[in-house]
What we know:
It comes from Rotaria magnacalcarata. The protein is of the alpha/beta class. The chain contains five helices and six strands; from the N terminus they run ααβββαβαββα.
Amino acid sequence: GIGDYENVRKLKNPQNDAKALSSLLQRIRFTTVDQQLDKTCNQLKHAFVDFEASIQSNDIVLFYFAGHGIQWEDQNYLLPKDFPDMHAADATEKAALLKKNAINAQDILNKLSDREPYVIIFLLDCCRKYFLRNIDLNTRALNANESRSVGLSAMHKSGSLVAFACAPGTLVDDKPEEQNSLFMKHLLKHLA
């Protein structure tokens, strides 16, 4: 879970969500639970390499991300703590910044699948819009002051279940008065 962003709007719930899911997975006897909180891009990439290496054939793999998400062209990106402010960047600069400073979600799903697990449960608890104008500031949209919007694109991989916290073109609430996101609240209720 990433909420303590350095250059974009901070979020309250992602850390709570990651901690709650980690605790639940340990209680239901997942053998490896790797919780990453407020990590930089390099830290996340290294943690993912370690996580990927731990996966054995026929494992049940659950990947969960809470934080900011962006779609650029046909790819979904997960934003680390140190993701730069892209407000003043042109389209070419934005594409370069994303590829260098964010985590490509489809690449993660592909690498997990290469390990031949029994199943992959891939959960993304982030908005499905980017660069929005006039929205409630307590959402997981990256920037509430821009006018362009795009939704996270569909993701596919055989042997996987991919779930988003919201429908295309909608927002995930990050309500300060709540302990967890709505997605995590219901996930915890039904997994417990």
